TrEMBL record, chain B:
Keywords: Germination, Lipoprotein, Membrane, Palmitate, Signal. GO terms for cellular component: membrane. One of its GO terms (biological process) is spore germination. Gene3D superfamilies: Nutrient germinant receptor protein C, domain 3. This is Ger(X)C family spore germination protein. Belongs to the GerABKC lipoprotein family. InterPro entries: GerAC_N (IPR057336), Spore_GerAC-like (IPR008844), Spore_GerAC-like_C (IPR046953), Spore_GerAC_C_sf (IPR038501). It holds the Pfam family Spore_GerAC. Residues 24-190 form the Spore germination protein N-terminal domain. It is found in: Membrane.
Amino acid sequence: MKGLLFMKSLLSEINKSIGKNDDLYKWSQDFGNIQVVLVGLSSLIDFPKTIQLLEGQIQTVRHSSEVIVQQLHKIGKVKSEKKEIIEAIFEGELIIFIDELGLVISIDPVPKTLNRSIESPSSDNNIQGPLSAFNEDLSTNIGLLRKEFSSVELQVSSYTFGNSQKKGLSLLYCKDQVNNKLVENVTKQVESNLDKMLYTIQDVTKMLGLPKYSLISSFNTTESPQEVYSNLVKGRVVLFLDRLPYALILPSTLWDMFAIRNDENYSFVIMIALRLLRVIGAITALVLPGLYVALVAVNPEMLRIELALSVAKTREGVPYPAFVEVILMLVILELIIEASVRLPKSIGPTVTMVGGIVLGQAAVDARLVSNLLIIILAASTIASSTIVGFQNSFTIRIFKYNTLVLASIFGVLGVFTGLFLVCAYIASKTTLGIPYLSVKGEMKSG
Amino acid sequence: MNIKKSKIYILLVMLLLLTSGCWDNRDINHRVMPVVLGVSKESEEEYKAYLQVPILQEDGIKTQIITGVGKTINEIVDKTSANLESNVDLLHIKVIVIDRAFAEEGVKDLISGIMRSREIPSKALVAICEEDMDEFFKKMSQVELSDGTALLDYFEKNAGWNPQIALTRVWHVYRSIHSYTKDVAIPIIRLGESTLIEQAGSAVIKNGAMLDEINSDETLLYNAFQGMSAHGKIEVLDEGSVLILDNGLNFASRLENELPILTLELQLEVMILEVKGDPTIEKIEKELEKLLKPRFENMITKLKDSEADILGIGQLFRKEIPRAQLKDWRSKYYPNLKFNLTVDVTIQNSGNLKEPGE
């Protein structure tokens, strides 16, 4: 009888704190001669199937109540604290209250399917390579990776972050290849910050104690299991955050901007050519707008006279100085890029079209900018998209302004000063003790 | 990043923007970019400068000539710049044309002025004009379809230059003024009858003043001496003509009793262009050697007499003559130079036809 009272008070307490949720489901059920109450969230649990399954398991054993309880013990965990029980409910478990015995057991029910199926990547497009991409579910992602990397070397450690709300984070590395100090560092950071709440990559950055103001992403993100595999083998550490369909690869290095594993699905020569193309793309994107301003406004003597004359002709009647002209068009271009990310897919083409007309023709016809500038900006924008990883192309897009401002002041010298500053900046970056400019061979010796 | 640190960064950016002095950067369409600068003496003290400026037009490029008179080139440019709607930017000047009379008088000050100036590039080419300058530039601006770069193209190695034309830049002239052992030749141009420009050999320049002239055949040898006569053509009077494919020069220099002695071997690899009759290869080679040797010898003798060392023979004796005596090279050693020249011609191929005489 003591158990019954305890049950009653526990149930009413739970009711009091979370009972207002309409998806909280309570159901009295008889298993043989035992009366139980099933509690769970109907939004997370497929109740009919769960009950069917439970009945199937218990009906096969037509024994006394002790046996049934024993059976339940086997498939579930005993809970006693109210807080524990509420947490279990929100994690999608089914709670079984057995009034007579004063026993609370939580079991894993049949969940509702709330995840997308495995789809092709949406931002890491590739042409000739595997197409499965990670999705929001942590265990699916780890499963995908286990398929890609079926070896005892793959080590997976899972952590749960947060107090009131739980968030899963998994740490993966290849035991053989990884730099032990790096794993130690990451594990230490993770374990000492388990109470923090993780929602976004910024939270993860903060949790790992990585620089907040860095222009270079400390993580290399990818959607492709193939990419993660190749990084694990290279000795990197990979983090999966629950509900984030990306793998976070630590540390990221400069070469990640230019090389992806999928290049190796082409022949060697083509792989080299592709990577070279990306390097050229990065340099073009960095230098071109700055070079335009430098050559047009500060150092026209660098141009051959024929070229200088035709450049001067395209700028005839343009009211703004070259720097203002470039900034104006660059801002419009950035707006178009941002808008085409934001907008629904059905409206996206409209923006592209309007942007294309505004940039391409009208601005030149109105003599607001020179048509050479349009070519330069188009080339630079296209070039900055050849870089691997969207977060890296942001970096290049920001560095571009650095070169541009210096070029407008110091001319061609400024372009090189800008490049020098960029080099100095990326050389100064380290992620958990590993320099951003480190190359393959040094990773292990670290 | 604390507040103090960010304040310093903001200050640095402000300094960069405010103290960089970039406020007077002019865009390319607000600059007048002359490509040719002509200089003559107007009076004892005043220069007259001609600026040949390509002007953009709807249907192409037209040439405009701007002239000005003043005591210095900078004064003239300043004056014209003030009168023009755009700023004159001398950085694009590619050719500097000097009036012959002025060149004979000496252009030392002008050349040093250009070298000192940060505006006019020291790599601009120098030419001497035999014609009246007013006439010359008037013709320049009248040329049909001229894009303003005609004179420039004439000297461009990838356009109109050929090895009969000396190629001398401002810094070469400046170097020759201050060197003990090297002078320069400056091409002489005049208006052509059927072509725009005609070349009339080269001027021998010593200490910034024109002393003598060499003709275009001699200029070809001068260029061969500098190692840049490839694709020059030589007429062999009786047998036809050949094209120089490659040239090399071997020399041995020694000093005997303060007398410089030079053994020179000029090697030419040539290709047959035209032949008259059926001369054998050996005959052509021999004829060519016979033609070139006296030509070369005459030139050196002429130069020796004028004490202008445009071939830079003095450079070859630098290891023999002590530094202290080097300044006497032109006056003491050079006129007494004894030289022994051999010309060695090899016919490398005979074009698309078989060798003549076979």
